[in-house]
Structure formats: C-alpha cells, structure tokens
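fold-stage: in
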Amino acid sequence: MIKAGIIGSTGYAGSEIVRLLLGHKDAEIRWFGSRSYIDRKYADIYQNFFQLVDAACMDDNMDALADQVDVIFTATPQGLCASLVKEEILSKVKIIDLSADFRIKDVDKYEKWYGITHPSPEYIKEAVYGLCEINREQVKKARLIANPGCYPTCSTLSLYPLLKEGLIDGNTVIIDAKSGTSGAGRGAKVDNLFCEVNENMKAYGVATHRHTPEIEDQLSYAAGEEITINFTPHLVPMNRGILVTAYASLKKNVSYEEVKAVYDNYYAEETFVRVLEKDVCPQTKWVEGSNYVDVNFKLDPRTNRIIVMGAMDNLVKGAAGQAVQNMNLMFGLPETEGLLQVPMFP
C-alpha cells in the first residue's frame, strides 16, 4: 500500500487528489496538509467527505512528512514546493508537484513569467515533466515530477501528433482556450464572485498568461525547433472543464484520413486520450469528473489551416488525475488504477 501525503489538501486540486485516492485500491492518505486549516477536521471543510475522512488537517512540514509516507503531492502556490524540497527529502520520498516550480527548464524564463526568484533551481533539470502519454518512461524512473498545468495538458495533447509528424507550422499556432472558474483556485477574489462570473465570459491574461512559456516549451520539444504561439485563455461561468480550440497552417496538403491515421497512431493505445469520430466536436460535459481528454480536428482547405479541439476536466486530467496517473507509473502500478471513473452527466 502506497502511503501518500498531500500538502495543500484543502484547495480544489488537493481535494480532488483526496477524492481520487479514496477510490484507489493501492494507496492510502496519511497526511492532509493545509496551512490555513491546521487542526480542523478535513470533513468540516469539505462535507462531501463526511464519514469518509476522519483526519484533521496538519501543517506543511515536508521534513516530518517525508518520514511517514512514500509520495508527497504538493498542490500549492508557485514557489512553496521549491522552497521546501531538498536532497534529504528526495532521498526518502517521491514528490509530485502540481505547481509550476519545475515545469520550465529555463530558470530565467520561469522567474520572468512568474515574478519570483526560484528557491531551488538545482532540481529543475532533474524534474520530469509529468505528461504521461509523452514522457511515460522518464516518469517511471523519476523522484520529482512537475505535474503539467491544465491549459498546457489540453493544448499539448491536442497538437502533439501534428507537430511531431511535421504537418503544421508551429509558429502559426493560435490557441483559444476556455476554462471553468475552479481553475482560478479556491482563494477569495472579486473576479471570481458569482455576480462577476455568472452570465459573463471574458478573456484574461491576454499575451501574458503564465502557461504560455510552458505550452511553447512542450510544443517546441515536439516540433524539434523553437516555437512561439499566441495563447488566449477565457473564463466561462461553469465549475469545471477546459476547451481548447487551436489553429495552425498546414505544411502540405493532407486528407482527413491521413490526419486521422496520425492521431490514431499516437493515441490508439492511450486509455485517457479519446480521438473522436469525424465531425464530432469535443465538449466539456462529456469529460467532466474524469481523467479523459477528448480531441478532434477539422481541415479547412479554404485557408490551408487545421482546427484542432480538445476538452478535459481541469481538476482531473488537468491536475489531480494526472498527478495520480504519475504516481501509478512511479510505483509500477497499472497506469489507470483509481482513474477509470466514467465522466459525469448531467
């Protein structure tokens, strides 16, 4: 049985890790960390866990935690995990970090986009970017995982086969993305109040969103060359879900059948990436509460462009589900263990 500890267990991503691990037959939670709710019963904060979790919240003492568990999930703001991690801890326990601390390999780029000084840049090179469908073998051997961001996960998986096969010009990629409000976290902010969000849609972080360099890095690795994109996220009045619509210029004339064969070649054996049938557009409602990503594409011969679409749950495949998927790989378990929940509808 894998013993797990969660630092940041009372945020949305942290509580989703709790939900998934309670249904995992090979894992148990030993530590519910939350700096904001020390000594409060976890089920008092999230009543959906009433009579399912009896534990109280503890502090984020990673040194003490490393002596009690096999894996630590850090669902915390940027900079916290990097300020706590050290060799003594990594020699005892595996860490899956849900923040951006170790996702970007260029420390100067990280500090520019996130506006903070990186506390432990010596671990950036070692950290494995935990997009399982692409870095599966590296994840299996890792002791420190940089769990990908939600927008980067959906964007990368949607576009990866096209870039890897050289079918599109990466520097023409434009990504238009929509997210539910849980992506902004649980902290109290005026912009997230009901009256601000309800009956409203808006773009935010235009040309400045922090996920931009992460997406560019992953697309560049796929293409084998430096790529610069336009990425614009939007907030929509729903709890969960991400929808990515990406546009790119084709490098050559291709048929639907040729492109579909490329996607099938990359994802036919991937449980959590579902390539939809022709002309079926991904929708967030068909992936809600699950670890699945639905992708599809449409060729536009008139403009010589391809339109790529992806939908997923930002809290599951975009955060907690992907973290558990990484844990499964790191400990030699079936990759799908604890993650085969059927999407919820309605």
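fold-stage: in (second)
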Amino acid sequence: MEASVFQGLLITTLAGLSTAIGSFFGIYSRKPTPSFLAFSLGFSAGVMVFVAFLELLPTAVQTPGLGLVRAYSAFFAGMVIYFLIDLLVPHDYIGQHDHTENGAYPREAVRRPALERTGLLVMLGITIHNFPEGMATFISTVHDLKFGLALGVAIALHNIPEGIAIAAPVYVSSGSRRKAFFWSFSSGLSEIVGGILAAAVLMPFLSPIVMGIALAGVGGIMVSISLDELIPVAKSFDSEHFPTLGVITGMVVMAVSLYLLS
C-alpha cells in the first residue's frame, strides 16, 4: 500500500526523534552508576554491531547491481574513513591503559574530557548513519506503508540506546543535562533531514546502488566506533560483566524486534 509524502516524513521524524527517549534514560538519573554506563554503552555497541552486520551490510550486498565485492569494499572503506579520522584526531583511549588494580580499571583513569570526546564521536557516527536511514525510511514508506512503518519502528528501537550512548557520557563529563540532551537530540535530526532531502530532491534520482554503498559504508563506521570507542569506554567503567551483558542484551533486543516486525 502506497503512502503519502506526509506519512513518509511523519514516520521518519518519529524514528529520528526517538533518540530523545534514550537521552532521558541517560541523563535523568541523579548519579549514573559505573555499572549503568558500562551496560548502556555495551548495549549500544551490541545494537550497532548487530545492525551493521545483519541489516545494513546484507541489504547492501543484496542491492541489484551492487554485489558482494562492491558492498564489502564500501564496508571496509567506512572502517578506513573512521581510522583516518582517528589518526587526524589522536587521543589516549579510555580503558586501554596497562595500569589496573586487581584486574579493574581505576575510576581515576576515566577522564572527563576524554569521556566527553567519546560522546561527540558517537554522536558523529550516529549522525552519519542516521542520514541514509532517514532517506531509506522515507522512500520505503512512500513505496509501501506497512514496510516503511516496520522499518521505522525498528530504527526507533535502536535509536533509543544510541541516545543513551550519546547523552550518558556527555552528562557525566560536563554535568549539563541540557548539553547532553541537545547532542543526543541533534543526532536524531539528521534522520529527519535525510527524509526531507529524499522527498524534496533525491527521490526522483536516488539510485539503489548509491543507497547500498552508503548503507555498507555506514555499517563499517558503526562497527569501528563500537570496537574502538564504545566497548573500551564501557570496560573502563566496569572491567568484568556489565559491558558484555550490555552487548548481548543489545543484540538480543534487536534480533527479537526485527523478528517480530518481519
């Protein structure tokens, strides 16, 4: 069943703004515990890795005219792009120091400026992948309302932990709920912008191959952010079980949600 442009933009907007829900979880706790942060960051890493390998990359591979080789090349290109950004902005990784106390990372090693930088990098990565998601959600909805709605709900579900992953470290590092909420909210706006551009400019000319390449590249960026930033920072808060439980829970939640919506 085809949908109107308004319906497409509405579903895209609701999916994008769901990051704000995650930001409330991340900031409206008077004193987020290390375990909470470790779990939430691990949760977001699990969601991002799962979505990258089991949603974005397969979609790109199955894109007519793109194929496995070009899709994989775009995926690894995304990882290289993140690696180059990391080289241009050198920093000391939180959670990768050799000095530990009884196998646990000391709380003093978690420096506030570095933690805020992690929130910024996560926001940038999520903003990048939200843009093509917005275009995909809008185009899918206009083509088929039921499919677009299912895709919008799935994206909204994984945008919530993404909002947590941005807001929680920014709030802890800066002490500002307003700043944490703004960063998290801003990342969701890119999804809306993607939908608007698809409606106004790109929809008549958008190539499935271009979209497939974008999704594969974004998948590579998401995996790099998860392995290089989210999991190390989660381990810096809790070097034992909560990061792993978060990763597993994030993957299970996404698997169940995609199954129920399939």
